[in-house]
Design a protein that fits this description.
Blueprint lengths: L16 H17 L6 H8 L3 H7 L3 H26 L2 H16 L8 H6 L8 H23 L5 H21 L2 H21 L7 H11 L1
Helix pairs in contact: 1-2, 1-4, 4-5, 4-7, 5-7, 5-9, 7-8, 8-9
């Protein structure tokens, strides 16, 4: 599958304390307050750098947003890579689900960084939306492979179900009760795993074939 990989694409930038400080500051502000509400002037002030330094590392605010989302992907990929190195199939599906429920309970949780960013960028062809789509495609494929290894006869359909209930849990945990959202999400995932044998008697999902063909390209 083309696009975002795990770990993330290699970078050509040299390590820079100023760049790291800028990205850390921007990441914290973007997630906590929203991308559109945070100006570059505030990032410069709180990152203790000059405006010239910011634009040397990030020619535009959009470049900074893309780097922020790539960093979020890297953190998720690192955690799930570690899980995939020690488990597979049902155990990996449950491990991925554990990562979601743990995230819902984090202090300062404000929903999914990718869904939040997508709500602020309407153009699906923009660099920001592309990195969001790449991350979601990578995540879907990881879940699909785990469900396939678990023996699910319709892994693509089940993976879409997993991602949908994960998205819902992310929103519900921020808006309402993170504990209730986590429990509902977990029950949904367990239901997917319990359905493995039952789904063998269900007619094939044409979307599942399309998704698997796309993943193989």
């Amino acid at each position: 599958m083309e696009g975002m990989t795990s770990p993330s694409r290699s970078r050509t930038e040299k390590p820079s304390p100023a760049r790291e400080r800028l990205l850390t500051t921007a990441s914290s502000l973007f997630y906590a307050e929203g991308i559109g509400s945070v100006g570059v002037g505030r990032i410069v002030d709180e990152g203790h750098v000059t405006l010239a330094t910011l634009y040397r590392h990030f020619p535009s605010k959009q470049d900074l947003v893309v780097a922020y989302l790539q960093r979020v992907h890297d953190l998720i990929a690192s955690r799930l890579d570690a899980a995939a190195s020690t488990s597979s199939g049902r155990d990996l599906v449950l491990s991925i689900a554990d990562g979601v429920t743990e995230e819902l309970a984090l202090p300062g949780f404000r929903g999914c960084a990718f869904l939040n960013a997508a709500s602020e960028y309407e153009d699906a062809a923009s660099p920001v939306r592309r990195v969001i789509a790449e991350h979601r495609g990578w995540y879907y494929e990881l879940v699909r492979r785990a469900l396939d290894e678990a023996g699910h006869p319709l892994p693509g359909s089940a993976a879409r179900h997993f991602v949908l209930i994960r998205d819902g849990a992310m929103c519900a945990a921020y808006l309402e009760d993170d504990g209730a959202a986590a429990r509902a999400f977990r029950r949904g995932v367990e239901g997917l795993l319990l359905s493995i044998d039952q789904e063998r008697h269900v007619a094939p999902d044409p979307d599942d074939d399309l998704q698997q063909s796309a993943a193989a390209r």
